[in-house]
Amino acid sequence: MAENKDQALDERLKSALWFSIGKIVDEETLKLGVNATPQFIGALTEMVWAQIENVSIDLENFAKHARRSTISTEDVMLLSRRNEGLEVVLKVYLDKQKVGKSKRPTR
Q: Which residue of 32, 42, 45, 55 pairs with 18 in a disulfide if CB–CB is 3.0 to 4.6 A?
């Protein structure tokens, strides 16, 4: 029964992902004046789903290796080392977050 619930949840999540990707593809195809087939959207959804699965496994393994049960920003930064552009964007974002937290008044 738990397996059925997990499978149903996966299907709902994949449907939500398909819907979101479909909206993005529709917006972009209108801008570019091109068409995208439902098969393209389905294939893109499957590719994104597989990437999400791989990223989640990597993040879980990084946290487990550090003997933690919670994924941290350090795990995300470790994962982003494979993509230099993403790593830079994330570092800038984290730096802004740290500055914002330090400017908050203490209670």
A: 45
The pTM of this model reads: 0.77
User: Closest Cα partner for 78 from 96, 92, 63, 68?
Assistant: 63
Q: What tokens does 5 get?
A: 């619930």
59-86 residue pLDDT tens: 999 999 999 999 999 999 999 998 999 9
Beta carbons of 39 and 8 less than 8 angstroms apart: no
Q: How far apart are CA 53 and CA 40, in angstroms?
A: 20
Q: What is the pLDDT of residues 79-107, one digit of tens each?
A: 999 899 999 999 999 999 988 877 766 65
